[in-house]
Amino acid sequence: MRLILRFILVVFILIIVGVTALLFMPGDRIAKFAEDQFEAATGRQMDITGDVRTSIYPLLGVRTGPVTIANADWAGGEPMLRAEGLSIGVNLMALFSGDVKIKKVEVISPQILLEVAKDGRANWEMAPAGATAAAGTPSGSGAIPAFTLERGLVKGGKLTYIDHASGEKTVLSDLDIDLRLPDFAAQGDISLSMRMHGQPVSLDTTVANFGKFINGGVSALTASIKTGGSTIAFDGKAGISPFAADGKVDADLADMAALFGVLGMDAPDLPKGMGRTARLAGDVTYTAQGTAHLRNGSIRLDQNVLTGAVDVFIAGKERPFVKGQFKAGALDFSVLAASVDNETGAAVETAAGWPKDVIDVSALSSVDADVGLVANAIDLGTVKLGPSSVAVKLDRSRAVFELNKVQAYQGIVSGQFVMNGRGGLSVGGDLKVAHMAMQPLLKDLADYERLIAVGDLRVKFLGVGNTMDAIMRSLSGDGSFTLGQGEILGLDLAGMLRNLDTSYQGKGQKTVFNSIGATFTMKDGVLYNDDLAFVAPLARADGSGEVGIGTQTLNYRITPVALAAADGTGGISVPVLITGTWANPKFRPDLKGLIDQNLADEKAALEAKLAAEKAAAEARLQAEKAALQERLDAERAAAEQRAKDALGVETQDGESIEDAARRKLEEEAKRGLLNLLGNN
């Protein structure tokens, strides 16, 4: 828009300078003179064809026939400007006093072609005949001289902008411009209307110091842009070379279709509450370095209102980077629960499987972001959250949602959820739920109010696929859950087992339990569990099996036991198989399992009896062996004593009878030998 404005002003000035002189010339010399003067001033050829007519009253003026202005020599054969005619009028009475006041300049049905070469040259960069504009010279770098213009008009124009470096082409049609500038150094008013991508757009601007503004300075400015039912208003100060602005913005984006239509795009089909209509107000700053900043901002997305600050960094970035922090009261995103059939109240995916529509995550690649949100409450339709603190970090199509602290159903949710759109879609998370009340949660989720307990949940998961069906069939991960002491209303589990009647209600019509807990793993969309434990004063239950998350199927076995003894032993056990689909589960007694269990119990009892009898026999054998050994030891001791008495010997420590007898014999032999030697 800055380039367009400067170009049109240059054209107006050239027309004023060149055509004013024509007012005092004979008609047959006007066209030739204007062409020569224009080429001398700009180095471009101008051709005026048809009649050139002058008028005297009420305005002294001149009107030409068709006019063309040649393009730059590098830009091709199409003229830069082609118009059906030009006209200019001056104030006749002021002219008598020696003051030339331009009352009106009009360009009729201009076709304007603006081009930028690959090396940065622009076709609107002009130089006097004999001079050459340098490649890459900034467009409009020369100062625009002062002039006054009570009214400058462009009617029925068309502007085409082509950037040969990027291949970008923009066309503005039905272009009408109304410029009012009675004093170049004072206020100027511009009204502009056009069609962009077929969508009508209008702009009304008032510049406090027009001359300063158009030559690159900063001036107070108000502007209003309208397209369809959307309006963007600005009140502050701005400059165009380089472009910068600082002021208050009030944007009422009630017509998203018109707004996106201006950009040549279809408006996204956003859920209500996410921005079908929007309103933005606050203090906005756009710097010459290509950064935008919002302070004291208020953003309304349909019925939801957020306040806070945002910084947007554009220059030098592969994609815009948005950093912000928002606060909100109660946010209503209840429309996100639209997957529930309004007529039947049944979840659509439960009856027909998971949706197979491709999930479009292309929006993840449009921007990088680091945004935080603190809200008093968030209504997600089926689930309602209390005070919440969350953060979103988006980097190259990968969004990480940090649940810093989310209060829900008297508990706390924390953890991380990831949506990765790099080369396909994957979702994952590591979530923890602490001390959550099950009754209000299950009432909102499934209209089920019979479970009263406080629970903890931990789940870590990963799913890959471009559809919800593919993601659910690929889920992997693990987790656990525990429920503390609670009740199941409307069900007397112990009475049902004692009476072998699944319809049994019982006097208390509830089952009190001490705890429920389980761990699980997930692989290829199937949840596996083998340690479900239900503990109650009068009953217990164990469970194991599979839950097909991707296929929405069940294959699970629960073995409840009605306890007979206070120590938790004995009682009646009836295994139950749960099979079928989520939409149509089937419950039946596991007779084979019951028989197998009874056989296993009998086998265990028999094995225990045999083990006890074996242990008793071994004990008797050991006792008899010990008694026999004791008798043998006694008889051996008596025999040894008789031998000692017969031999007349006494054994010393560690000495056998044989050794004692040998010792005594040696002693007797030694005495006999000594006596014999002594007698001789």
**Quaternary assembly:** single chain
Global shape: elongated
Query: Which spans of ≥5 residues are poorly predicted at pLDDT below 50?
Result: 135-141, 339-350
Main sheet attributes: strand count, strand direction, barrel closure: 34 strands, mixed
Helix share of residues?
10-25%
Strand content: 35-45%
Number of strands: 37
Give the distance, in angstroms, between the N- and C-terminal Cα atoms: 157 Å
Structural class: alpha+beta
* Cα Rg: 49 Å
Q: What does the average pLDDT come to? A: 82
Please work out how many helical segments DSSP would assign: 11
Could you please describe the fold and organization of this structure?
The chain crosses the membrane at residues 7-25. This protein starts with a helix and ends with a helix. The strands form two sheets. The chain has a 34-stranded mixed beta sheet that branches. A three-stranded antiparallel beta sheet has the order 26-29-30. The longest helix has 57 residues, at 591-647. It is 24% helix and 43% strand. Among the domains are: 1-123 and 147-180, no CATH class; 329-337 and 356-474, no CATH class; 480-589, no CATH class; 608-675, no CATH class. With 680 residues, it is of the alpha+beta class. It has eleven helices and 37 strands.
